[in-house]
Amino acid sequence: MTEKKPDHASMIRSPENWPRWPVLPVKRPAEFGWQIGTIVANEKVYNRQGPIKIFLASMFEDVTTDTPHREYANAEAAVKDGWIVD
């Protein structure tokens, strides 16, 4: 029996299913371990319109407009760049 791979893009697009709403912790492989990030629920995420902003901060940190981030056209692009739900 093969294990079904999680659908990270679907989870990113569905804030109503986020266990720590209004934030979703994400991570991607880095040279030494993992790079962590946080997606914050907003109108564009709810409307599944993108872009998706991944703030390069822990979900326990205050995220502001000055927080470094990566922006992706949509959830699929973020997953393609290595981001997965943590």
Strand content: 25-35%
Major sheet summary line: 3 strands, antiparallel
Structural class: alpha+beta
Mean pLDDT: 88
Estimate the global geometry from the Cα principal axes. Answer: globular
Write down the Rg: 13 Å
Structure summary, number of beta strands: 5
Give the topology string: H per helix, E per strand.
HEEHEEHE
The helix content, as a percent range, equals 10-25%
Strand order of the largest sheet: 2-1-5
SSE inventory with pairings:
Layout: H1 8-12, E1 23-30, E2 33-40, H2 43-46, E3 52-55, E4 69-72, H3 75-80, E5 84-85
Antiparallel strand pairs: 1-2, 1-5, 3-4
Describe the structure.
The chain has about 90 residues and is α+β, with helices and mostly antiparallel strands. The mean pLDDT is about 90. Strand 1 (about 25-30) and strand 2 (about 35-40) form a beta hairpin. It contains 3 helices and 5 strands. The protein is globular, with a radius of gyration of 13 Å. Helix content is about 15%, strand content about 30%. Strands 2-1-5 form a 3-stranded antiparallel β-sheet. The chain has a two-stranded antiparallel ribbon with strand order 3-4.
